[in-house]
Amino acid sequence: MRSAVIPSRGRESALWRRFVMERLHRLFALVLVLQLIQCFEGYWWTETYRVLYVTLGVYGVTELLISRALIARLTLQLLAAVISTLAFTPFQWYGWPLSWRQWAYAGPFLKNHGEQLHPYVELAAGAILVTHVIAAWGTSRARTIALIVISVIVLASVDSFYPLELWPHIAVTVLAGLGWLVVIHMRMLRDRHYDSWDALAARPFELIVPAAAVIGLLVLIGVTMPRAPVLLEDPYTLWMEAQNRDVPSSAGEGGYLINGSFLSSGSSGSSKSGYGRNDAEIGGGFEFDYSPVMSVATNEKSYWRGETKAVYTGKGWTDVKGTPSSPVTLGSDNLPLSPERTQQEGIREIVQTVKMVREDRIPVLFAAGPASAVEEIEGVSNPKLFWNSEEWELRFQRPIQVESYTVVSQVQELDENKLRSLSGVTSYGKSSIELTPYLQLPESLPDRVGELAKQATAGAANDYDRLKMLEQYLKDNYTYTNTPDTSKQKSDDVVDAFLFEIQEGYCDYYSTAFVVMARTLGIPTRWVKGYTAGSSPVDEEAERYGYMPDPSGAGTYTVRNSDAHSWAEAYFEGYGWVSFEPTSGFSIPVPVHQDAPVIAPTTAEPTPATEVDAPVAAASHWQQLVIYSAFAVILLAIAALAVFKRRKLASVWKKLVMRRESPNEQIVREMERLVRFMQRKGFRRNPHDTLRETVTDWGGRYYWLRQDLDSILLQFESARYGGHHVDEETSRRFSQSAERIRKAL
């Protein structure tokens, strides 16, 4: 056997044998893992991806340069995970412990520094382990194809049912899988046809270039093919609809909402969060969509308003008919307000440059309210944009796709002292605007809604305090959830159902209830929808480390579909529209008048921890961390041991399965397994030949196997047809001979 194998390998260059034949498949496994981790886009921190990329990069280098020394490779890779965590995360060094021998010093040191490595090191170690497992398992053509199919199914499923565009990653996965199959094919060619391999090994590029050209051409054709419209409904949707179940849906590329309806066709289903949910009938549930919509560079944080609704139907919201609009001229300060501002004191100018991330058609421009000028719009020529001075809407004649735009807004500072002296309706019953739409209520509204509003605002001396009490009442007494239990709803009115039956919901419920309850008190209000401010790197750092970010800070904010929101505005004669945020867990950024007193929020006094409670809590947290870490280490160790001892485990499993069989049956089963193995390795068997004829033919072609093949054939025939029982020792020798043949192949 050695004399047949060594000469063929002698013609291979060291580069060809070590990098292509022995290690290149590890790089393909790395590519598969890099595509699979994209499924967590939007859920992992940016630092997490940096740590993973560096760690997996070190994996690729060490696996290509080092063939053996598994422990050394793993050590380098785990060390890379730790170092990259220290480099890319805000790790803080607290100094060495005073003593390693006393747990009172060593414990806090390990706790304070170990917690900062969580969860980056665990995720990086898990990615390394998965890559090793994939590389170790994909040693045959069938297994490699299975890995490709599983990876494509996972990516396609996430692409279909989550707001992620993973088609490029699917293409890369297929490309890596085809390359892996080429490596497997070359190994099989080298092991089975030495003479042919000798000729190819001397001219490797004549083999690599055609394979790379064919694979690259196939993938290039697939990637550059134009997108075709969907002609048939997918089986998943048909199956879900057949069972009367909701089908998750979201606005995909080019799909947006016009008057409450998606432009994209297809079956209706439970929606995802995003601007443009149907306002005519609010309620139900939705799934959070964390895909980015736009980025906003601004000199002051704000909510980004889109549209205003005033007519409440009992089911949802519709527009006021007949409100005038005027064309917008880019670059000129020609956006009037209705009513006009009588004074310019306390006005903040906010400049926002918005860059759209998604290729969606939008019906309005989003900006802090009210806008005073539209400086520019990129990505569209001659946009037909109109300004509604009463509703503060920048609306296109029809939804269009834009790349970016810049809007200047003039926002009134919040002066609570002045607001407490004003009201929406003056004592003589006149107002600068027509208030009827903003006091409208359906006749079917139950009386108990108004009664509850009076109870919630009892004791307030003015309209502003009534609204603040109503705002706080809704925040304190109703639970925020994106999946309210609508089975509790009995009332036909959505506000009545929210307040007295469902008693949980999301922003549409809260803001609608606030507007309706305020109107029962005679205060003119309207409903607004748009986006919250979004998130900035500064805010993310603040949330992560527990300090409060600047509520009106300048910066660039990433706005996602999950930031779609609705809130309320109330009118005060002589002041204008004032925003209110009744949704639990939300706070609207409003510029405050500099001379206004700062009122601290009312919170319960924290109960001071006793000298016993604090150590117990710290110990409990530390014990929990130790338990979780130990459990994770044990799982990783078991998985690694299973990978590197897989042959021995397979042998143990085989013994357990064959334990109940007689030695004769064990030999027969082992022979059947060996024949199937050799057929998978390319040994052909004529279906009309007997086993003796087949084995004799194989021994004639592969002379170095003839002795072992003849030996196991005689033992098999003796056990199968001899009519006498063989002993355990004979069965064991048969298994050893079969295993020797497998290793030789």
TrEMBL record:
Q: Sorted alphabetically, which InterPro entries does this protein's record hold?
A: Bact_TGase-like (IPR052901), Papain-like_cys_pep_sf (IPR038765), TgpA-like_C (IPR025403), TgpA_N (IPR021878), Transglutaminase-like (IPR002931)
Protein name listed in UniProt? Transglutaminase domain-containing protein
**PANTHER family according to UniProt:** PROTEIN-GLUTAMINE GAMMA-GLUTAMYLTRANSFERASE
Residues crossing the lipid bilayer are 27-45, 51-71, 78-97, 117-137, 144-162, 168-186, 207-225, 625-644
Q: Where is the composition biased (Polar residues)?
A: 323-332
UniProt keyword annotations, A-Z: Membrane, Transmembrane, Transmembrane helix
**Native organism:** Cohnella lubricantis
Q: Where is this region: Disordered?
A: 323-342
Where do the Transglutaminase-like domain residues begin and end? 499-584
SMART domains, per this entry?
TGc
